């Protein structure tokens, strides 16, 4: 039986902040969370104890609901090696679970990616890496007026039959669908997906405000990368952006790299939506972690230079953002608290995915996914299901002894 106690000065559980406390992990799950006083009365003879630096904080593992790739691999590569590469790379930035996100491509390529993800997920993923919680189907049911970096030629009108086919190939693993609610057949599909518990996220959409509200009434409850690839606010039509900011029932994804969204607009979203209304995502592509150069996004060539990835015409093509940078930027742009960050990276996505009984907070019975941060919000350690899978080099002590 694997038992490990991690002691830290500040533990942000997602429900409360414990000053000078501990987390007991056992066989991949959180067994107990408490104060140092409670720890002093525990029997820990058969338990390893890891004492953290007093400047470190512990937060729940972060969940990325929108990521295409990392470290040279992409979900659309449709190979188990690609998914393994992504899953093994993400803990270094504090991500312990994620949705494998597809692109608008040919039906054949989409199905290959769905089948591959289903095969990878089926045996409950792989130990020692971030867990794939399901699939985010981004497209092909999007608006040709707002494709972003998605392939226009492969856009489809949404139908119950086509989604059912995709879901069958995925083995029921599609957990989120980004779509444009103004497309023919969209409202009927939104109702069907919502009834099945699949998240409908409004994105790559040119919808008018009344069409956004129709989608919300039908069951849509999320917005994909707020501000990007959607109808903007106009004083006679609030569009998707206005609806997203004002409709309490819409959780909004936000790419906080300082490029996709101006810092002032990040601040506005935070003020209007609060910590309960936002979820930080990376929308990262295979070029993340690789540096400048030429890469492929689906079948399109992209260029990465310094801090951004673009198509040949200059259109932003996903990001090379890490979640570590996202939380640091969000803190800088908004002045929010670390507890707010915990909600936007763990609590909110776990609840939205209906997985809060297992993920998203540090509580007994949940998966032992946790991240250790220093005072600069840099990632010091990441635990996935109780195993230390990432440790920053300068962190001393015997932490390496606990790598599974």
Labels describing this entry:
404 residues, eight-stranded parallel sheet, 27% strand, globular
Structure explained in plain terms:
The protein is an alpha/beta fold. It is 26% helix and 27% strand. It contains ten helices and 21 strands. The strands form four sheets. Strands 1, 2, 3, 4, 5, 19, 20 and 21 form an eight-stranded mixed sheet that branches. The protein has an eight-stranded parallel sheet with strand order 6-9-10-11-12-13-14-15. Helix 6 packs across helix 7 (239-246). The two termini are 12 Å apart. The relative contact order is 0.16. Residues 397-404 have low confidence and may be disordered.
List the helices and strands and how they pair.
Elements: E1 3-12, E2 17-26, E3 29-35, H1 36-39, E4 48-51, E5 57-60, E6 62-67, E7 69-70, E8 73-74, H2 80-89, E9 95-101, H3 107-121, E10 131-138, H4 160-169, E11 174-179, H5 186-195, E12 199-202, H6 209-218, E13 222-223, H7 239-246, E14 251-254, H8 263-273, E15 278-280, E16 293-297, E17 300-305, E18 308-310, H9 323-334, H10 338-352, E19 370-373, E20 379-384, E21 387-391
Parallel strand pairs: 1-4, 1-5, 6-9, 9-10, 10-11, 11-12, 12-13, 13-14, 14-15
Antiparallel strand pairs: 1-2, 2-3, 5-19, 7-8, 16-17, 17-18, 19-20, 20-21
Helix pairs in contact: 6-7
